[in-house]
Specification:
88 residues
Length: 88
C-alpha cells in the first residue's frame, strides 16, 4: 500500500468507526452520528483547504478526499434511513 492510501484509510476509518459505533445506539445515536459526521467532514474540508494553501499539500489532499468519502457514506446512510419513512 502506498503512503497516500494508508493516510486516507486512517483519516477516513477513524470517523467511520465512530459513526458505526454511534449508529448502534438507536434513533438518537443515528441522529448524533449524522451531526457528528457533518461536523467532522466540514472540519476536514476547512483544514484540508488551509493545508492546501500552505506547504502541506499532500495532507490537504488526503483530508479533502477523506471528507468526500465520509460525506458519500453519510448521505447514502441518510438516504437509506429516509427511504423507510412515511411522510403522509
Amino acid at each position: 500500500m502506498t503512503k497516500t492510501f494508508k493516510e486516507v484509510l486512517l483519516f477516513t476509518g477513524i470517523p467511520l468507526l465512530l459513526f458505526l459505533i454511534l449508529c448502534f445506539n438507536g434513533e438518537d445515536g443515528m441522529l448524533a452520528a449524522g451531526v457528528l459526521m457533518l461536523i467532522v467532514s466540514g472540519a476536514y474540508v476547512l483544514i484540508g483547504l488551509i493545508l492546501l494553501l500552505t506547504e502541506s499539500k499532500h495532507i490537504g489532499k488526503v483530508m479533502l478526499l477523506s471528507a468526500g468519502i465520509i460525506l458519500l457514506v453519510g448521505f447514502s446512510t441518510c438516504g437509506l434511513l429516509l427511504s423507510g419513512m412515511n411522510f403522509h
